[in-house]
């Protein structure tokens, strides 16, 4: 019987590409994840996040690394296995902000990837640094750039789907990990299972049981949201649970499954969270969805309830907007802009007097709130780009001038 990471050298890593060219560094990084030296493990994990998951992108080498990462997670001797499990989940679906509150659209991905396998097979090997740089380094890039926009889309959709399906092979392992003695592993397993709807029939009983047995509210909430994303609405009785995170998860899960048919208590719970500027405090791990931004997730979930709650949802979002910055502000602004500008981008030259009352309120809130424009005290370009996408000035100063007419 083979050991962990046996077969690692049987992969032709030099022929596989990642964010920085040939994947020759990946085998040593995978081995280093078992190092007794904590700093070596951390460096290896950072390296893998940078090369096979560069800013959310996946590459040809990503899918080949996944089976070995699954072996590491399954082996009780692997240190920091919860971090490896998180890397696997992100290799499957990227950043979850793209998929909440609706879930992962795997059927769309499979359609988008049709024909991508053949395009990937025709791709030349990446530059490995051994030949003349001027001649070799751009060969892979030139091939991709030679493709039509449609074929590039097929190629990258197939690359991402390959990584997704490689991680999907670990779904039975993830179900087993719901009973792991380490709470970080249980939490990570529930989070991972949320993104594989094709396996919902087998995962839902395990997630529901895990939510019932969870010793901590964070674990129960994570399992409930995962179940909701897979199509099972949490019981309405959980909306009165004494644990705030469980009430939040019940509302989020019910909104995901019931949509416009969700009951009033579900809407009320989401509205309370969406207006809140304070994250729940605790000594343990946070709910992993949307990087622990429970209020932001609740705000996004309000769209699932349909137009009857739109006015109250908009009020809740505007109540929270001035108090948040960075990624949390991005989530709030995204939903507020969607509600205020249902027809999309403003026509160029639209004067402020032509804005609807809802649009005017949002412009005023953004213009007079410094915090949403900042990330760790520095200008946050993502919010500026989001605002500009709707035809509004892309800086707070310019928006102030616009609002003043």
Give a quick rundown of the structure:
The chain has 405 residues and is mostly helical. The protein is 56% helix and 3% strand. The model has no long low-confidence stretch (mean pLDDT 94).
Which stretches are poorly predicted, pLDDT < 50 over at least 5 residues?
none
Order of helices and strands: EEHHEEHHHHHHHHHHHHHHHHHEEHH
Cα Rg:
23 Å
Counting DSSP E segments of at least 2 residues, the number of strands comes to: 6
Shape type: globular
Main pleated sheet: 2 strands, antiparallel
The N- and C-terminal alpha carbons lie at a distance of: 75 Å
Mean of all residue-level pLDDT scores: 94
Walk me through the structure.
- This protein is mostly helical and 405 residues long.
- Among the domains are: 1-169, no CATH class; 318-405, no CATH class.
- It is 56% helix and 3% strand.
- It has helices at residues 26-32, 38-51, 60-74, 81-93, 106-112, 116-121, 133-136, 139-146, 149-168, 171-177, 183-193, 200-213, 217-229, 244-258, 264-274, 294-301, 310-320, 326-340, 357-367, 381-389, 396-403, and strands at 17-18, 21-22, 53-54, 57-58, 374-375, 378-379.
- The strands form 3 sheets. A two-stranded antiparallel sheet has the order 1-2.
- The longest helix is centred in the middle third of the chain and has 20 residues, at 149-168.
- The protein is globular and about 65 Å long.
- The mean pLDDT is 94.
Give the arrangement of secondary structure elements.
Blueprint: E1 17-18, E2 21-22, H1 26-32, H2 38-51, E3 53-54, E4 57-58, H3 60-74, H4 81-93, H5 106-112, H6 116-121, H7 133-136, H8 139-146, H9 149-168, H10 171-177, H11 183-193, H12 200-213, H13 217-229, H14 244-258, H15 264-274, H16 294-301, H17 310-320, H18 326-340, H19 357-367, E5 374-375, E6 378-379, H20 381-389, H21 396-403
Antiparallel strand pairs: 1-2, 3-4, 5-6
Helix pairs in contact: 1-2, 3-4, 3-9, 4-9, 4-11, 5-9, 10-11, 11-13, 12-13, 13-14, 14-15, 14-16, 15-16, 16-18, 17-18, 18-20, 19-21
